[in-house]
């Protein structure tokens, strides 16, 4: 297991890679407070502005590779960032959000009204009980963890930018820091913000969480 060091603690070691974790820009479904894990919504005008600001910022940062979830809201954000560096984007479905099953495209209010018992059960046993016809959290976590392990192995010694979703980014941070599934609710990535992590064979160092450089969420 990697040891984890907080921001500001320096170790005398050459880090294997720096990973920038970016949450996609805002979508209309974000504004409506909806569950939309695998629903292929695109970013809205605010989301495009957020992505443009990310592009301007990362244009000055050395990046060797850009990865993204294959869902449109992440892919579009990544493509805007990549255009500022004349780079291609590598798409990977491993970095998709949790699939919500019957709760896809529904508001939280609708779910609270129409799935009271299912919601109560999921809140109590969220790691092992899937949403109706949805993806079990442990399967989601293992999918994301396997994807980020593969990304790290393929990009040692590089600076990599990855655009994904709030839940997927939380799962990555839990996995990379050794917090495991129990640490999932400790992390929350804001739309259009990024976190930075240094990863070596022995240590993971969190440099920043939710670095703000763009429009705030509405």
Automatic annotation (TrEMBL):
Residues at the active site: 24 (tele-phosphohistidine intermediate), 97 (proton donor/acceptor)
A Gene Ontology term for the protein's cellular component: cytosol
InterPro entries per the UniProt record, alphabetical: His_Pase_superF_clade-1, His_PPase_superfam, PG/BPGM_mutase_AS, Phosphoglycerate_Mutase, Ribazole_CobC
Superkingdom of the source species: Bacteria
Binding site for substrate: 23-30, 73, 97-100
A GO biological process held by the record: cobalamin biosynthetic process
CDD domains in the cross-refs: HP_PGM_like
Keywords noted in UniProt: Hydrolase
An example Gene Ontology molecular-function term: alpha-ribazole phosphatase activity
Short name of any one Pfam family annotated for the protein: His_Phos_1
EC identifiers of the protein: 3.1.3.73
Cross-referenced SUPFAM superfamilies: Phosphoglycerate mutase-like (SSF53254)
Record protein name field: Alpha-ribazole phosphatase
Organism, as annotated: Anaerotignum lactatifermentans
